[in-house]
Amino acid sequence: MLTGVNQPLAKQVALLEHILRLNPALYELITTVAQLKLPNLYVGGGSITQSVWNALFHQTPGYGISDVDIVYYDPDLSVAKEAATQEKIAQQLAGNQYTIDVKNEARVHLWYAQRFGKTITPYQSTEDAISTWPTTATALGVYIDENARLQAFAPYGLNDLFMGIVRPNKKLITAAVYQAKAHKWQQKWPDLTVVDW
Questions:
Q1: The overall pTM is greater than 0.90
Q2: Residue 143 backbone dihedrals phi, psi, to 5 degrees
Q3: 49-65 pLDDT, tens per residue?
Q4: What are the C-alpha distances in Å from 63 to residues 145, 147, 161, 170, 177?
Q5: Would you give the distance in Å from CA 29 to the centre of its chain?
Q6: Pure H helices in the chain
Q7: Which positions ≥6 away from 27 have C-beta within 8 Å?
Q8: CA 76 to chain centre
Q9: Are 185 and 65 in contact (CB under 8 A)?
Q10: Apex CA 50: angle with CA 36 and CA 143, to 5°?
Q11: Which residues contact 78 (CB under 8 A, 6 or more apart)?
């Protein structure tokens, strides 16, 4: 268990920042993408969560991280604008070791049903989208603010993250999706505690 459990949020975010800084490539990505000033921008999901699990379970900082999610909220719903933003980010991050996955959360409802077989209402913000991510520990986004300080959005808190608990967030996903993700993660981090659906 990390020392961030049951601590004030400011202390938890400071610990999160310390852990993320242990992986210079990831922290540089977070810092670099912030310079693009995209609306309602976060770096989130697995790469952030897995960095903490690596600290918790004594793995190397980049262990198990396959890609990095970059999410933002632009009311311009055109495919062309999202593609241009994706290209801009790719150019800015050229040379970074991670595969990036960039999404305008304002557009997700336009393709979600075709990809996942379920219609969703449009998200109202990036925070709204993050609140639906599959688990309490992975529903997490970070960004660097104008004062060069790490900020975090964690709608379900950070205790599950710091304790290595995988708990379903049932807002959007199915039991099958949750179980598949939990199984995949337990293969890499066998000491995770997975809560049943």
A1: yes
A2: -155, 165
A3: 999 999 999 999 999 99
A4: 27, 30, 16, 27, 23
A5: 13
A6: 9-21, 24-34, 46-56, 79-92, 108-116, 126-130, 159-163, 175-188
A7: 20, 21
A8: 23
A9: no
A10: 25
A11: none
